[in-house]
From TrEMBL:
Transmembrane segments: 15-36
InterPro entries documented for this protein: ExbD
GO biological process: protein transport
Topology of the protein relative to the lipid bilayer: Single-pass membrane protein; Single-pass type II membrane protein
Coarse class of the protein's main subcellular location: membrane
Matches recorded under Pfam families: ExbD
Name this polypeptide is given: Biopolymer transporter ExbD
A GO cellular component annotation in the UniProt record: plasma membrane
Classification via Gene3D superfamilies: 3.30.420.270
Residue runs in coiled coils: none
GO MF annotation terms: transmembrane transporter activity
Length: 132
């Protein structure tokens, strides 16, 4: 009596679903990175500095070339600046406020804004620059 030969089924690994998942994760990280770069604030031409260091900012104060002030994305006046910053900071916590001033902004406008913020307790100031 003869038995039929055993048909060995070949085992295969289908990597197409894995490639789909890898591309989906890659697309997520690319899109989230693009969003993070836009979240910094309004577009301004930052001054260049070779000694620039990266720091975590709690709040961002943007001063445009025309001298307009924006706390985050919201417009704010110089008179209301300290009250707005104080409202966004939790009591007893230290906050880092980064000033993103355009190169064409008058120096007096930047100093006046920084002077208003410096009077607040628990607030540290930083000036945003970009590397040359």
């Amino acid at each position: 009596m003869q038995l039929p030969p055993d048909e060995e089924s070949r085992l295969t690994i289908n990597i197409v679903p894995m490639i789909d998942v890898v591309f989906a994760v890659l697309a997520f990280f690319i899109l989230s990175t693009l969003y993070l770069t836009r979240a910094e604030g309004l577009p301004v031409a930052l001054p260049r500095a070779t000694t620039a260091e990266s720091q975590e900012a709690t709040l961002t104060l943007t001063i445009t070339a025309e001298g307009n002030l924006f706390l985050g994305q919201q417009p704010v006046t110089l008179e209301a600046l300290s009250d707005e910053v104080q409202a966004l900071i939790e009591p007893g916590q230290t906050a880092m406020v980064t000033v993103r001033a355009d190169m064409a902004t008058p120096h007096g406008q930047v100093v006046a804004a920084m002077d208003r913020i410096r009077d607040l307790d628990g607030v540290r100031l930083g000036i945003a620059t970009q590397r040359p």
